């Protein structure tokens, strides 16, 4: 038996992770570093980025770095992509959610959530391709959601429609970039324990009720999503493109 055999290794790869200051993005950065990658992180929250950087394994001697950027600003996206080196993987993960019944939706909220959840992924991908920062063998992974793509729920229209947009974008880009040997996939998580789901979005009673929809009896942990992303970044998934991978503890089965 070859004990060093690891088809999921990211050794020698350079990976950009957005939304890396906490939650799922921090877990992605941690798992990428543990898997041997050099990690480049970005987020609007510099304090969180510093904490993530301090928690990264660099046994492989990699120099992990971060750039603070507000991904709702096209100029900051273009600057970020100019600064970074060529990539082997890109995880487009930053996102926001705000619940509101449709009758209370405002144009400002639609635009705010679309800017980070949908327009930023499109512009980041545009600049990565245009500035030739991704090439043959690269893997792009979008953090979409089970919400919208696989299930809808009251009060979640704005978020759900942005994630459906990400799904259509991911599949379109998979078609466009496949002939260049660049793969695009998404992960589509159910409810994961992060700030996004804890910052006053749901009452305890709503959470208990929602938990009944999870056959595995728990909500997700950030690492549950991060480890699936490691698979999609690694050469183990080299024949996988255009896939929206559900990671939801069975939530969408019923
Ligand atoms: N937590 C869940 O239940 C869940 C489920 C499905 C999908 N997701 C998706 O997972 C991704 C990560 O979410 P999370 O749960 O880790 O939430 P989180 O709030 O912990 O992390 C989101 C990160 O995005 C960053 N961000 C927000 N606006 C930004 C901006 N303008 N520029 C740069 N960075 C910005 C935040 O600072 C934060 O670090 C999101 O795309 C979210 O939609 C989360």
What does this 3D model show about the protein?
- By secondary structure, the chain is of the alpha/beta class.
- The chain has one domain (14-247): 3-Layer(aba) Sandwich (Rossmann fold), CATH 3.40.50.
- The chain is built from nine helices and seven strands; from the N terminus they run E-H-E-H-E-H-E-H-E-H-H-E-H-H-H-E.
- The chain has helices at 23-34, 46-54, 74-83, 107-130, 146-149, 157-177, 195-198, 204-211, 222-233; strands at residues 14-18, 38-43, 65-68, 87-92, 134-143, 183-189, 244-247.
- Helix 2 links the parallel strand 2 (38-43) and strand 3.
- Helix 4 (107-130) packs parallel to helix 6.
- The mean pLDDT is 96.
Task: Write out key terms for the chains shown.
single chain; 254 residues; alpha/beta; Rossmann fold; 9 helices; 41% helix; globular; binds nicotinamide-adenine-dinucleotide
